[in-house]
Design brief:
The chain has about 300 residues and is α/β, with parallel strands linked by helices. About 40% of the residues lie in helices and about 20% in strands. Mean pLDDT is about 85; it is low at about 1-5 and about 285-305. The structure holds adenosine-5'-triphosphate (ATP). It comes from Streptomyces tsukubensis (strain DSM 42081 / NBRC 108919 / NRRL 18488 / 9993).
Amino acid sequence: MTTTTTTTAETVLDASGVTMRFGGLTAVRSVDLTVNSGEIVGLIGPNGAGKTTFFNCLTGLYVPTEGRVSYKGTVLPPKPHLVTQAGVARTFQNIRLFSNMTVLENVLVGRHTRTKEGLWSALLRGPGFKRAEAESRERAMELLEFTGLAAKADHLARNLPYGEQRKLEIARALASDPGLLLLDEPTAGMNPQETRAAEDLIFAIRDQGIAVLVIEHDMRFIFNLCDRVACLVQGEKLVEGSPEVVQGDDRVVAAYLGTPFEGAPGAEEVAEVEAAEAEAAASTPADAVSEGRESTTRTTGPEKETP
Ligand SMILES: Nc1ncnc2c1ncn2[C@@H]1O[C@H](COP(=O)(O)OP(=O)(O)OP(=O)(O)O)[C@@H](O)[C@H]1O
């Protein structure tokens, strides 16, 4: 496995031995991944490889069966709001906006982890609350400027075109002032122009000092954007390295095409099943005829006539 490590940068995210099982299914198996300050790291892999499950383990939505996730040297608590408070924000594969709230209100919701005013202050609307509210609005408007949505601050979220809804999700995530932003398929459903704009936005986010971990299926986007890319296959990290290294790795191509290769995650199990099936197929016809029953393993060809 090829690994590129930046030793001088601060480690922002350190996921170590993360495993997530759902009953008998191991969706993520012993995955290690770091993200350093100033980096954009990509997470790729075929459908069902475990990418979103891994994100859910990082953000407290799932409690990993095994493993540990640290942010800037501190182990993250397995509760989404505490993870956000610690400095890790995320967007979702399926857009999760408050569709009947305005664009500005959506960003203000994302701001709540950074406001200190409590319930009584909010109910009494005292000077502390008003000051905090004004600051939140100012910050939210800054973020809308940054993401190019300021002109639509008063529009209902549901009336935004799809690409802008994705941007709004990012603005809302940024409202919690994260040090690490996790993006789950940020360009899904976007046209090429919107995808290019999303790329520029993510570069700008990185330039503001926020490390980024991004899941994407658009390979051109990911290889253009990322400093480092990790490829998951059947829950295991198969390859990690620079975009050039990952792009040129035959195992990654094979994994996407579904071609089996030596050492592939799950390949041993597949080989065992295939061997057992071959053995059964070789022995079953004679047995089946002598015992007067049909083979259940054979799927093609007519039954052979016995003289
Ligand atoms: N809550 C759950 N309960 C049971 N199985 C789950 C659950 N969440 C995910 N899985 C399974 O875990 C595996 C990994 O799914 P996951 O959604 O993480 O893959 P992915 O790489 O994000 O896929 P995609 O690219 O299609 O979004 C799949 O087999 C999926 O069916």
